[in-house]
Design brief:
By secondary structure, this protein is an alpha/beta fold. The protein is built from 11 helices and 8 strands. It is globular and about 50 Å long. Residues 79-260 form the Macro domain.
Amino acid sequence: MEEERETWMNKRKKKKMTWHELSYLEDGNSSKAVDSVVVPKKRERGNNGKRALESLTSSERRKFYHTQDFVPLEKISPWIPPNEREPVDRRISLFRGDITRLELDAIVNAANSSLMGGGGVDGCIHRAAGPLLKKECATLGGCETGKAKMTSGYRLPAKNVIHTVGPIVHGQPGEQQKSSLRSCYWTSLDLAARHELKTLAFPCISTGIYGYPPDEAADIAIRTVKDYLTEYPDKFEKVVFCVFLKSDETLYQCKLKQFLTDQPCDPQSNSKL
């Protein structure tokens, strides 16, 4: 490996290194280094990988995405109620698929308190973003339940990652856990708004191994986003609820209908759509 690294470095001496190449060299994996985009030296002066990334244009960044099968904003349709033709609120979308493919200003990570990566969506986001995400997270000092912190997105199509820590639930959630979950959504939206980010995607927070009942978690997620958009109508152009399971898609279809159209939620009806 050392011989391969030295050979590769000698080969690259006449070229300017990119943040992406540097990150892989740190991991000792030169076989994955990318030659396609070069960051000009004037952008590299005194920078780290994050600063180099942020200096790239949108077209340059796309060449560094962990996947070229990304989903641009224009491909994310607003949510439309069943049997209707027009959306209730064009700012709200439901997307079923991999959140690490979404090309937005930010995606939210359902993180643990260390912010150093874990299972589920947390692990997927860290793997897709690459090793520089973990290095930046290590500088943040963790995160409390219900709070949020932001990093760069690195190799993700999303420019930023907002990390929030949801409550752990055993049995039925109490008032403190309900408040903490609401805070996850509200503080994530608030953090994004303070940085003038306009497009954002949420995964399901605290469900899965954290034990929050999906039905009740969806209630809080949609109600909180709706409340925020009502209170601050000009802050966001798009907020996406990103689900992975078909059962969650059915649940969110039902809950969006309930909260956005004031019609009763009937999961059985939505499952037939």
